[in-house]
Amino acid sequence: MFEHTILKKENFIIIKEIESKPAITQRQLSAKLTISLGKVNYLLRELIKKGLIEVKNFSDNSGKLNKLHYYLTKEGLEYKISITQHFLKEKEAEYNQIKQEWEHLLCNKSNIADNEQVIK
């Protein structure tokens, strides 16, 4: 479960970066996500297999490194929207839990203060 959540976050960041910078390199993605270049390569291949992104080669010179651009497909955009909704729901649930804990602590603090005044 935890690994699945991490992969979702990594995929989300990759998709977000590709959407804003199609010419981003795997090395740049690796640095951004602080994961290995091999893992970035693996994740990109999986996103391509799933049809969420596509890659185009823009270099005609065989002596130079290929200039790759990544593009978000329609399915990729739908996935980004879906995963964004998922993360927002997660963060809202975390917020509500922290808010309840905070209110509980404030209530306990108030009760302790009331008890101290009664003792005095």
General description of the model:
The protein has a single domain, classed as Winged helix-like DNA-binding domain superfamily/Winged helix DNA-binding domain (Arc Repressor Mutant, subunit A, Orthogonal Bundle), CATH 1.10.10. The chain is 72% helix and 8% strand. It is built from four helices and two strands, in the order H-H-H-E-E-H. The protein has a two-stranded antiparallel ribbon with strand order 1-2. The longest helix has 46 residues, at 74-119.
**CATH topology type:** Arc Repressor Mutant, subunit A
Amino-to-carboxy terminus distance: 52 Å
Strand content: 5-15%
Q: For this structure, what is the CATH class?
A: Mainly Alpha
Low-confidence stretches: none
- Share of residues in helices: over 70%
CATH architecture: Orthogonal Bundle
Number of domains: 1
| Count, helices | 4
Give me the Rg, rounded.
23 Å
Q: So what's the overall shape?
A: elongated
The SS-based structural class is: mainly alpha
Q: How are strands sequenced across the largest beta sheet?
A: 1-2
| Biggest sheet character | 2 strands, antiparallel
* Tally of DSSP β-strands: 2
Question: Which H/E pattern describes the elements?
Answer: HHHEEH
What is the CATH H-level superfamily? Winged helix-like DNA-binding domain superfamily/Winged helix DNA-binding domain
Mean pLDDT: 84
Give a quick set of tags describing it.
2 strands, 4 helices, Arc Repressor Mutant, subunit A, mainly alpha, two-stranded antiparallel ribbon
